[in-house]
Amino acid sequence: MSQIVKRAYKYRFHPTPEQADLLSRTFGCVRLVWNKALAERNRRHKDDGVSTSYVDTAKWLTVWKQDPELEFLSEVSNVPLQQTLRAQQVAFNNFFAKRARYPRFKSKHKSRASATFQNNAFSFRNGVLKLAKMDAPLNIVWSRPLPEGAEPSTVTVSKDAAGRWFVSILVEEKITPLSPAERSAGIDAGLDHLLTLSTGEKITNPRHERADRKRLAKAQRELSRKAKGSVNRAKARVKVARAHARITDRRRDFLHKVTTRLVRENQTLAIEDLTVRNLVKNHSLARAVSDASWRELRSMLEYKTAWYGRELLVVDRWFPSSKLCSARGCGHVSESMPLRVRAWTCPVCGASHDRDVNAARNILAAGLADR
Questions:
Q1: What global pTM score does this model have?
Q2: Distance CA 251, CA 227 (A)
Q3: Second label for 251, Cα 20 to 30 Å away, from 46, 181, 193, 331?
Q4: Residue scoring higher pLDDT (3 or 38)
Q5: pLDDT tens for residues 251-298?
Q6: How far is CA 241 from CA 1, 235, 248, 253, 367, in A?
C-alpha cells in the first residue's frame, strides 16, 4: 500500500552577487537570533528559574527588531528568524526527552550556515523558485526532477565551508512499496570490509578518507602556514573544506548505492546496535570508524526500509555474534575472540567459520528470533 512521506530534494544553485549578499546577511541574522535567544533562555533559567516557550522567544524577536542597534534584522525575511526559534524549541524538547544533548551556541565558522523559508516566504511555479525579498529566482541546477505535481512546504538554503550553495526542497511524495522479496540478510559492520552479509558476500570498505589523505594533509599544511586573519588564510581554509567535501560526497554516494541495493534485494535486514560514539573514543580506531560512517549507513537503512515496505531488525550490542557458533544445533560460545582472529573452528561441532560471515549469520538469526 502506497504511503505519503515527507522527502527533501537537495540541489546546488548559483546565486547572483545580490542574492549571495542577502542570503549571507540572512545567515548572520539567523545565527544572531539563535544565540541571543539561547543566552536569554539560559539567563532566565539560572536567575529566575523560569522555563521558556517558543511564544516567549517570538515576543523577544519583536522587541529586538525595534532596537536601533538591531534594525538590520528587518532587512531580511522574518520567516527564517522565526524558524530558527522553532528549531531551538524542538532542540530543547529533544534534550528534555533525552534524545539529544543541550543546545549550543552557533559559531560563524564552525556552524552550518543555513536559513529555512516556509511556503509564505517563497513562490514556486513551473520549476521557478523565488525567495522573499529577492527580485530574481534562484539559478538551480536541477540534477533530478521533483515528483510530478509536488508542492514544496519548506525551502532550506545553505552554504557549506567549501563555498558551495545548496537548496533543499521539502515535499510530500507518494512512495509505493517494493514487491516482496524472498531473501533476508544479516549485516556485520567492519573496518577491513565495510559490510559482511550472512550470504557470505563481503562489501569492500572504500576508505575514502584514506584515499584522499595526502590531498587533505597538503591543504592543511598550507593552511597552517598562512597568517591568521589574512585573505590567503581564508583561501587556504576553503581548499581544506573542499578536500573534506570531496570525501564526504563520495562516501555518501557509496552508502546510498549500497543501502538501496540491500533494501531492494532483501525483505528483512538485521544489524547490530553499534555505539559509534563510544567506538570513536578509541584513538587507534577513531579515524577508521568515522570514515566507515556506520551511523549514516544505519540511518539510510532505517528510512529506506520504512519507505519501501521492508523490515529492519536491530540486535543488542552485547549479543556475542562473533563468538557464537552459527552451526545448526550447536550454539557453543567461545570464551574470547581477539580481533586478530579472522577464522576459527568450533571445538564442539568442528564447524569452520569466517569470523565476519559467522557474525552476520548470528545477527540474522537473533533478529528473527526477537521480533
A1: 0.88
A2: 32
A3: 181
A4: 38
A5: 999 999 999 999 999 999 999 998 777 777 777 777 887 888 889 999
A6: 43, 10, 10, 18, 40
Judge whether 300 and 307 are in contact, CB under 8 Å: no
Predicted pLDDT at 277: 73
- Which is it for the CA torsion 41, 45, 48, 49, positive or negative? positive
Q: What is the pLDDT of residue 191?
A: 86
Q: Count the alpha carbons within 13 Å of 308 in the hemisphere toward its beta carbon.
A: 23
Cell 529566575 belongs to residue: 48
Nearest C-alpha neighbor of 81 from the set 133, 131, 34: 34
Nearest to 183 by CA among 43, 58, 364: 364
DSSP symbol at 74? G
In angstroms, the CA 90 to CA 78 distance is: 19
Element (H, E) at 170: strand 165-175
Q: Which three cell numbers stand for residue 90?
A: 524542538
pLDDT tens per residue across span 243-261:
999 999 999 999 999 999 9
pLDDT tens figures, 10-48: 999 999 999 999 999 999 999 999 999 999 999 999 999
185 grid coordinates: 540478510
141 - beta bridge partners? 12
For 44-159, where are the alpha helices, taking DSSP H only? 54-65, 78-96
Grid coordinates representing 165?
Answer: 550553495
Q: Which residue has the cell 590531498?
A: 215
**Residue 192 is among the residues annotated as catalytic for this protein:** no
Q: Across the chain, what does the average pLDDT equal? A: 93
Percent of the chain with pLDDT over 90: 83
- Of 75, 188, 249, 354, the catalytic one is 188
> Of these residues, 69, 148, 272, 370, which one is catalytic?
272
Domain boundaries, the chain: 3-175, 184-268+276-309
In our burial notation (b when 16+ CB lie closer than 10 A, e otherwise), range 58-69 reads: eebbeebeeeee
Which of 88-94's residues contact partners 24+ apart within 8 Å by CB, and which partners?
A: 88/34, 88/37, 88/38, 88/41, 88/54, 88/57, 89/53, 89/54, 89/57, 92/41
Assigned C-alpha cell, 334: 567461545
Catalytic, 209? Answer no
Percent of the chain with pLDDT over 70: 100
